[in-house]
Amino acid sequence: MNPVRCGDCGHFIRSTINPEQGMGRCRVNAKTLPTSYRGYAPSLWPFSERYCRSFIACT
Ligand code: SF4
Fold it and tell me: What's the pLDDT score for residue 40?
């Protein structure tokens, strides 16, 4: 599985205050896996990488 970014995903709901860079939400509340040794997935910043089986690419 390759890491993905929420900002590239069709399930991502962007921040209304800062749509480009603000922390958004996941429409399907997907469970994600961390990409780092720290063991937790990052918050839903559009550029943070995560492993997510629910990712759908934006068209
Ligand atoms: S489905 Fe996964 S990649 Fe897409 S917005 Fe939700 S957590 Fe992010």
Answer: 87
Among 1, 52, 53, say which to mutate for ligand 1: greatest number of ligand atoms within 8 Å of CB.
52
Ligand 1 pocket, residue 6 CB under 6 Å:
yes
Q: Domain residues for 48?
A: 1-59
Q: Give Dmax over CA atoms of the chain in angstroms.
A: 32
Any atom of ligand 1 within 6 Å of the Cβ of 41: no
User: How many domains would you assign to the chain?
Assistant: 1
Interval between CA 45 and ligand 1 midpoint (Å):
10
The span from the CA of 42 to the CA of 32, in Å, is: 9
Per-residue pLDDT of the chain (59 residues; tens, 9 = 90+): 899 999 999 999 999 999 999 999 999 999 999 998 888 888 999 999 999 999 999 87
